[in-house]
Specification:
This protein has about 240 residues and is α/β, with parallel strands linked by helices. The chain has one domain: Rossmann fold. The chain is about 40% helix and about 15% strand. The protein has nine helices and six strands, in the order ββαβαβααααβαβαα.
Length: about 240
């Protein structure tokens, strides 16, 4: 197995536990929590990138980012290129909210639904978001319940500040201009039926980032590493070994 440093970044309202299917095959990897998520301390949203960079290995790493974690990974790769040897963007978009210039985002209604879920403080709201993540996958009820139990860190729930900070990032970030600055070999991974980040956003990234390749999972939602773990882990292993 390659000894190159391998780092995973999770997405909004989750924690490092979301990578439960990757813990064993990539036991030497670093699975980080975003600020205010899991056991990580709260920080202002504009300090998130620096906080993650401070935890990266000294030598350039292979960086895997999912969803909001992918947006953070894009920023690190562009702003601190010496810290990232290769990039994998899973279910990632350069801009979460739709606009006239960006048709591949979510409507204000979807975003406002996330905000209302946070403000309500109800666990049911996060359960609904978890269901949206897996929408598009043909899962049995038992498989869904198993993932909901094993992939969520119930002992360290995401803080309200962490969720608000993540929403602030999702609301404000427009990384489209940053894509030209990403020079690392990049693998774009997306589910074809992703209900959170449209697959068109992943295809756009693959067109804009030089030295990029893409893998689209058919009939798969926002979290292919959860619902297609064997194929996903093979992708990571090949990318990690070859880049």
């Amino acid at each position: 197995m390659s000894q190159k440093p391998l780092v995973f970044l999770h997405g909004w309202a989750q924690s490092r536990q979301i990578w439960c299917n990757q813990f064993e095959p990539f036991s030497d990897a670093l699975f980080l929590n975003l600020p205010g998520h899991g056991s990580a301390a709260d920080l202002p949203a504009d300090e998130w990138v620096d906080a993650i960079v401070a935890q990266l290995p000294d030598e350039p790493c292979h960086l895997v980012g999912w969803s909001l974690g992918g947006m953070v990974a894009m920023q690190i790769a562009a702003i601190h290129p010496e810290r990232v040897a290769a990039l994998m963007l899973v279910s990632t978009t350069p801009r979460f909210r739709a606009s006239e210039a960006w048709p591949h985002g979510n409507s204000d209604d979807v975003f406002n639904g996330f905000r209302e879920a946070v403000e309500s403080g109800s666990p049911k709201a996060l359960n609904r978001f978890f269901a949206l993540m897996l929408h598009g996958d043909a899962l049995s009820r038992s498989d869904y319940n198993r993932l909901a139990k094993t992939a969520v860190d119930r002992s360290n729930p995401v803080s309200a500040t962490g969720m608000q900070g993540g929403l602030e990032r999702l609301q404000q970030l427009d990384l489209c201009p940053l894509t030209n600055a990403i020079k690392q070999p990049t693998l774009i991974v997306h589910g074809e039926t992703d209900a959170v980040v449209p697959v068109a956003a992943g295809r756009w990234l693959a067109e804009q980032i030089s030295h990029s390749e893409s893998h689209i999972f058919p009939d798969c939602g926002h979290a292919p590493f959860l619902t297609r773990p064997d194929t996903f882990n093979e992708l990571v292993q090949t990318w990690w070994s070859e880049q």
